Amino acid sequence: MAQAKHISDPQGKKMSCSKAGGSPPPSVEQDQSSNEMDIKNICFVGAGHVGAPSATVLAFFNPALHINVVDISEALVRRWNSNSRHLPLNDEQGLCDLVRVTRDGTLPTLLWTDDDGAMERPGRKPNLVFSNDVKGGVREADMVFLCVETPTRSEGEGAGMAADTGSLEKAVKDVARWAKEGVIVVLKSTVPVGMARRVREMISMIRPTLSFEVLSNPEFLAEGEAVRNLLEPDRVLIGLSMTSTGHAAALALADIYTTWIDQEKIQKISNTSAELAKLTANAMLAQRISSINTISAICERTGAEIAEVQTALGSDNRIGAHFLQAGIGFGGSCFQKDVLNLVHLATSLDLRDAGDYWLQVLQINRFQTRNFVQRVISRLDGSLADKKVAIFGWTFKKGTSDARETRSFHVVKELLKEPVKEITIFDPGCDLADIRAAIRSPGGLESGKSECPNSNVTVHDNPYSACQEADAVLILTDWEQFRCLPDPERPSVANPKDHGVGAASSPASYISLGHTASSGVRSIISKLSIRDSPEQNDRSNAFTNPLGHLKPELPCPADCRDCNNKTSLPMSADVQVDWKRVSTKVKSPGWVFDGRNMVNVGEMQKLGFRVEAIGKASVWESDAY
Ligand SMILES: NC(=O)c1ccc[n+]([C@@H]2O[C@H](COP(=O)([O-])OP(=O)(O)OC[C@H]3O[C@@H](n4cnc5c(N)ncnc54)[C@H](O)[C@@H]3O)[C@@H](O)[C@H]2O)c1
Predict the structure, then answer these.
(1) Is the pLDDT of residue 438 over 70?
(2) FRET pair for 401, CA 20 to 30 Å: which of 86, 90, 371, 492?
(3) Is 159 left (phi over 0), alpha (psi -120 to 50) or beta?
(4) What are the tens digits of pLDDT across the range 253-284?
(5) CATH architecture of 281-512+574-613
(6) 148 in contact with ligand 1, CB cutoff 6 A
(7) Which residue is catalytic, options 17, 96, 334, 467?
(8) What number does the ligand 1 atom closest to the CA of 46 have?
(9) Domain 36-106+118-261: which topology?
């Protein structure tokens, strides 16, 4: 057990820390007297989807702290240090401005006083640095957040199930080698249960004399909403070891969060509980999607409508409406791996039934994709021979360029099992080069197809060339750009069968892109304006432009590598697909298979399409119920 002790930090302030081992364990409810840990310098290891936004928001709200974000990827760090045109994750609303404020600092601004005079508010100093200097970042830090990837293990024991903690262990070794006395190690990555204990053991083994603490602080942000989730989290979990030094470390971390998050939202629990809560949160969200997807399959065979069932279920407070949208299944880098991680944990604890229960969530996800593809094949006369299929949507969900574990990949893979003539792919938010790389990567769509060097899968920068002469359009991502909005001028068309297909597929079909985007931004901006213009009497244009004192950016140098490696995002993010135009391109009878319930079936019919939607019985099938 650890022996609590006091040492002096370089600034001569008192810090309380422990050696692995520890003092008598107080209970988790017991709040420790005072936070003696003086945190001045923080290092985030990993500048990816979690590390960089988390570091940026933390830096924004804690201007007195110096934050280093370190990553082993030179290309990624170069982009984080670049002109805002090349910043990674620039689809995350608000992130670019926050990076500019914290990384570059701001200019002084004029504030209006009560008597209509003006006073100057000083600019802000930069406090966020991106670099590849892992050693330097860790060495200076009082607190190190580990935010590296933990994918499913592809080889060795537990392959296909357990989390690959290789990158994390490498980062932990770096901490053990270079960290300063009293360092607090914060696990932000999603980790297997028991990892905090293992990290503790690893560090003590490598550097037995080091005093340190390990906290679990799993992240719950969703890609595409990272800034909003970080600004307004439902809760912050801080897992700690039940020692006095563990409590002091947790208090130090909580103090940082309470600069912008209410104290009541911070839950201090044990390390193991925090680790398990994170895995379970993702598993339960995935489970809800699989649950509703099984019901959507039943709807397709009974004539019940999934949109109506969803509304009925979602309005029950005990159930709630979140994660109840039927579709072709969940994707993304987290859900599958975290469910697998839970299955692995349960089976390794000899709880086979519990493991099987969670495994079924993944089986349903695969079933749903196959079911969708089978429906496509069956409507196209039972064969894809000589058929062209256009895919609309490659990312795993709207609002992100991330296509890790996207269901679109699996749909295309299923389609390729058939003698399909051509598959085209269009996505409004994913770099064309990234889609091409995913298709051609080892294990990608074309692996094992060496006999077919001329690929029949092509990537397009607009929906109209993608669907030219297509036999079917498949909507696979819930991009708002894919919605077909009602046109009051268009005459209605009689339904081929009375299944109510002429009605909107769901009230959500009418949510416009502008509405959803602006409410998100408003929420972010109002938060930022409070923080960035704290003076009550600030009459500057804080609401419309709270970051108006951003420093002007320098243009990219002539030899800018990122300009030369131009990312090729297709059409502008707020341009809707013109379905009328699509209707002139596709082959008759204009099949559209809506895997995300994005289009208004009635409106599409007026344009001459035949729509098959998830969770809705077919009106075109001769033997439909
Ligand atoms: N992506 C999400 O939406 C999300 C949400 C919540 C939690 N998480 C969890 O957070 C963790 C990180 O996920 P992510 O999506 O940010 O991953 P990511 O792949 O986007 O980023 C990880 C970064 O860590 C860097 N890295 C790896 N090893 C390193 C090392 N030893 N030193 C320095 N840098 C190193 C990589 O180069 C990469 O840039 C994972 O455990 C994930 O499960 C992710």
Answers:
(1) yes
(2) 371
(3) beta
(4) 999 999 999 999 999 999 999 999 999 999 99
(5) 3-Layer(aba) Sandwich (3.40)
(6) yes
(7) 334
(8) 24
(9) Rossmann fold (3.40.50)
